[in-house]
Amino acid sequence: MLCTTATKILIARQHFNAAIPKISSLPVIYVRALHSDVDKGEGRVKYVLSGEGASSIFIIDENTGDIHATKRLDREEQAYYTLRAQALDRYTNRPVEPESEFIIKVQDINDNEPKFLDGPYTAGVPEMSPVGTSVVQVVATDADDPTYGNSARVVYSILEGQPYFSVESKTGIIRTALPSMDREARDQYLLVIQAKDMVGQMGGLSGTTSVTVTLTDVNDNPPRFTQSYQFTVPESLPVASVVAKIKAADSDVGPNAEMDYRIIDGDGLGMFKVAPDKDTQEGVITLQKVLDFETKASYTLRIEAVNRNIDPRFVNLGTFSDTATVHITVEDVDEPPVFSSPVSKMVVSEAAKLGTIIGTVSAHDPDSSNSAIRYSIDRNTDLERFFNIDATTGVISTAKQLDREVNAVHNITIFAMESQDPLQVGKGIALITVMDINDNAPVFAIDYETFLCEDAKPGQVIQTISAVDPDEPPSGHRFFFALTPEAASNLNFTLRDNKDNTASVLTKRGGFRRREQSLYWLPILIGDSGTPSLSSTNTLSIRVCDCDPDGMAQSCSAEAYMLPAGLSTGALVAILACVLTLLVLVLLIVTMRRRKKEPLILDEERDVRENIVRYDDEGGGEEDTEAFDMVALRNLNVIRDHKARRDVTPEVPIFFSSRPPPYKTVPDNGIFREFIWDRLKDADVDPSAPPYDSLQTYAFEGSGSVAESLSSLESLSTDSDQNYDYLSDWGPRFKKLADLYGHSEGSNMFL
Asked: Which span out of 519-528, 568-577, 662-671 was modeled with the highest average pLDDT?
C-alpha cells in the first residue's frame, strides 16, 4: 500500500530558493516520497505519477518514489493540485497495488503588496465642516491568502494631507481634522494614503494612492458694496431704458452668491426700478417715468443687496445684506414740443360745412427757451385732405365734405414744430369722430327675385322683404313700407307692413296665368324714421311660374307686364324693335370705321418715298448723292406709266413728290383738274380697285407760283441779279458755293 493515499502535501513557496538536487539537469525541489509495501528493495517495482501538473510541474523517481517540483509555484495562480500515483511491476508493467490519489496544497507567503483598485480618488466636502466630517473611503486589496497569517491584513495611514485630514486605519475612511476650513482661503487639498499588509509590521508590503479633496462652497459670506455710485443720464432717455448697473461683491459662488436688489429709500422710488441680472448678479436700474430736467435735475437712491439663499448655520456671522447710495443727475437736452394731451378726441357732424371748426390741439416747448410752436397735419394720415389746421393756433377745421358712411373715424397725426429749431418735432393724435345725419334713404336689403305660382290663392304671402340703411340713428332703424300711390289700387298684389322692419307681399286674387302675363313689377315705397325722414321707391319683380305640388317653381316665361302705372305689351315690343335697329346701325358704323383704318397695300412697282438729306458740312452738298435716291425726284409722268394698283380697302396711299411734274400751265386751277381726272381714270380702269366708292388722297403741288420756286435746285435757272462772287473771298470752305452760284465763266451745276 502506498503511504500517500488520500493525503495532502503542503509545499511552502519560500523553500523553493533552498539548495536542492537536480534531476535530469532540471532545478527541482523535493516534495514527498511514495513507498509501496510490495517494494522490497529488489528493483522490481516502479512508480508512476499522473494528474494535474504531472510531468510538467511534478515528476517522480520511478525507482525510489520521490516526488519533486520542477518550477516555482504561485498560490495566486493555483492553490491546489490533484495527483494520482501507482506502483507497477517493472517487468510486466502490471499494477502491484491499486492507484492512490493525493492533493498538493501550495502554502501562501507574503509576496503581494496592497493595491487601490479605484484610485486615484477625488472627493468634496463643504467648507466650514466640523471636525470628523466624512470625506471619502479608500479601499486597498491584497492578493495574498487572508486565511493564512497576516499577509492580507491591511492597515491605512495618511502620508500627506495633515493636519487638515485624517484616515481611519482599519476602514480607510478619510475625515476632516481641522474646523473652519475656508474655501475662499484654500479650496483644494491633495492627500496621499498608504495601505500596508502584515498589520503594518516591519517587513510588510505597502501601496499608496492619492486623494484630491475639494472644499465646496457654502453661503458664509454676505454681499458687500465697495463704493457709492454717481451716474448722469439725459432727460430724453426713453422709459424702460437702463440707467445704470451696480454690483455687490460676494466671495461665494453659484446659488450662494445670488442676491436681490431693492430701493429702500430716496427721492426716486417711483422714477426708477432695480432688478437683478441673473447671469451677472448685477443690480440693473431702469427708468420708470419720463425725466424732466426743468422739473427735477437729480435723484438720490438707497439700494440694498440681500443674499437670496441664506444658510441658517451662519446667521451668527452677521446680516447677509448691504446698502449703497446711488446719485443720478439728469442732463438737460433740447426736447421736442409736448402735446397737452397725447390723444385729442373730437366730434364733427357729417353735415358740417367747409371751414367748420372741429377742435383745437395744444403743445408747448418743455425747455426753458419756451419756443413758439407751429402746427401741421401729417398728410400721410389725411391723404384726401379732409382737414386743415391753423399753424399758429392749432385749430382744426374741415376742408372737404365729410361722409360718415365712407369713414366714421379719422385718425390723423398732428406735428408740433419749434419755430427756433424746426428739427424738434412733437407728434400728437387727433381722433375725429364723424356724427351721423339722416342722409341716406333705405333700400331693399337684397335684390329680390320673387316667383308666383299659377295656382296661388288670394291673400297668400309670396315674399317677405326687408331694408337696409347705411345711416345709424341713435335709437336704431325703423322702416315703413307701403305701395306707391300709382300701385296702391292694383288688383293683383298688396303689401303688409309687419312693424318689425319687414313687410310681406300678398296676392289679392288667384288665377294667374303665364300665357296671359308672366312678369309683374310692383313699386314699393320704403321710408325711415330719421329727421328729416327719407324714402326711396324700390321695384319688386314678380315672375309667374308653373310650380310642382310642393310649390317649387318649374318653368317661368320672360314676357314682361307692367302694372297700371307701367307700359303695355305693344309698347314694349316697339321699344325692343327700336333698340335692335339702333344696335344694327351702330354695328355698321363701327365696321365701316374699322375698314377705313386698315392700311392700304402699296404698289410694289411704285418708287414713291420721302427722303431726308442731311448735310453736316458747308461744301459738297450737291455732289453728295449717296444719302438719297435721285429716282425720287423724277416727274409723275414716269410714275403714272407703270402704275398697277392692288388696293383692297377704301383708302389709297398718299404719294409725295419732291418736284412738280412738267404739266402744261393752264389758267386758274386747270392743272389740278387735269391731275385729278387722270387719277380718276386710272382708278376706274384698275381691276384691283374695290367695287365701291373710295376716298383718293394725293399730294400734288402743281407747277408755277407767284412766289416762284424756293428750291436751290433751280437757282441757276432764274434771272436773279444777286452776285455771289464774294464767296470766293471767304476761304476754301466757301469755294464750292462760289463755283455753284457765282457768275464766273465755266461755272456749271450737274444733277
From this structure: 519-528
d(C-alpha 87, C-alpha 92), whole Å: 12
> Can you read off the three cell numbers belonging to residue 84?
494520482
What pLDDT, on a 0 to 100 scale, did the predictor assign at position 650? 41
Choose from 34-48, 103-117, 174-188 the range with maximum mean pLDDT.
174-188
pLDDT of residue 549: 84
> Residues near 371 by Cβ (< 8 Å), separated by ≥ 6?
365, 418, 419, 420, 421, 424
Name 463's Cβ contacts closer than 8 Å, sequence gap at least 6: 448, 450, 504, 505, 540, 542
Whether 267 and 238 have beta carbons less than 8 Å apart is answered as no
And the C-alpha cell for 586? 351702330
Amino acid letter, 113: E
Q: 479 near 513, Cβ under 8 Å? A: no
| pLDDT bucket at 428, cuts 50 / 70 / 90 | very high
**Across residues 130-154, what is the average pLDDT?**
89
242-246 β-sheet, strand order: 242-246, 283-287, 272-276
Beta bridge partners of 284: 245, 275
- At position 112, the amino acid (one-letter code) is N
3-state secondary structure 431-462: EEEEECCCCCCCEECCCCCEEEECCCCCCCEE
Specify the 3-state DSSP secondary structure of 607.
coil
Measure the CA–CA gap between 374 and 391, rounded to whole angstroms. Answer: 5
Span 617-646, pLDDT tens digits: 555 555 554 544 444 444 444 444 444 444
Alpha carbon distances (Å) from 313 to 187, 250, 307, 364: 20, 18, 14, 61
The CA–CA distances, whole Å, from 211 to 159, 171, 180, 214 equal 11, 15, 20, 10
Q: Which helix (H) or strand (E) holds 672?
A: helix 670-685
In the chain, the amino acid numbered 206 is: S
Strand order in the sheet with 121-126: 121-126, 206-216, 188-196, 155-160
The sign of the torsion formed by the CA atoms of 65, 67, 68, 71 equals positive
Residue 276 pairs in a beta bridge with: 283
SS (H, E, C) 608-656: CCCCCCCCCCCCCCCCCCCCCCHHHHCCHHHHHHCCCCCCCCCECCCCC
Q: Is the pLDDT of residue 93 over 50?
A: yes
Look at residue 107 and tell me whether its pLDDT is greater than 50.
Answer: yes
- 739 pLDDT band, cuts 50/70/90, is confident
Contact between 326 and 246 under an 8 Å Cβ cutoff? The reply is yes
Q: Which of 42, 43, 32, 27 is nearest to 66 (CA)?
A: 32
Query: Contact at 8 Å (CB) between 444 and 538?
Result: yes
- The DSSP letter of residue 54 is B
Q: Beta-carbon neighbour count of residue 26 at 10 Å?
A: 10
* Interval 436-482: pLDDT, tens: 888 899 999 999 989 999 888 999 999 999 999 998 887 888 999 99
Angle at 354 between CA 350 and CA 356, to 5 degrees: 75
Q: What is the pLDDT of residue 119?
A: 86
Q: Taking 50 as the threshold, does the pLDDT of residue 600 lie above it?
A: no
C-alpha cell at 267: 427721492
Give yes or no for a cis peptide into 342 (omega within 30° of 0).
no
